[in-house]
Amino acid sequence: MAAITFAEAGEHATAKEMEGCRENKRNRCNRTTGIKVLLLGAISIILYAAVFTHQGLITDFCTRGQWYAAFPIIIVLVISLIHGPFCNYSLDLLGVKEKIKK
Q1: pLDDT at 21
Q2: pTM value surpassing 0.90
């Protein structure tokens, strides 16, 4: 049952207890989401900084031909695998949700 159901039935203590549990869970989720945002954000910044500061080396390495041509794809895959969850957790932390069509 929802907390509102207990409140409407006159069991205010049960409703407040249920709301308290929900608030504790929300705070815990925000804390862990915040830690994930900071960690993935730091890794994203490090990866982007590494690519931009070593772009000459990366360009030389990628233009050798043969199997070296797969290196840019690997770089993009690694960055997107880190940056994607960072964006997802950032939006969750800010409370941005998708609109559900009915």
Answers
A1: 47
A2: no
Per-residue pLDDT at 20 exceeds 70 = no
CA dihedral (31, 2, 5, 97) positive or negative: positive
Position 10 pLDDT exceeds 70: no
The C-alpha angle with vertex 86 and arms to 83 and 87, in degrees rounded to 5, equals 90
Residue 87 lies in a domain: yes
Domain count, the chain: 1
- Domain that residue 73 falls in: 3-94
Q: How far is CA 44 from CA 21, 48, 56, 76, 81, in A?
A: 34, 6, 20, 12, 10
Let me know if residue 100 belongs to a domain.
Answer: no
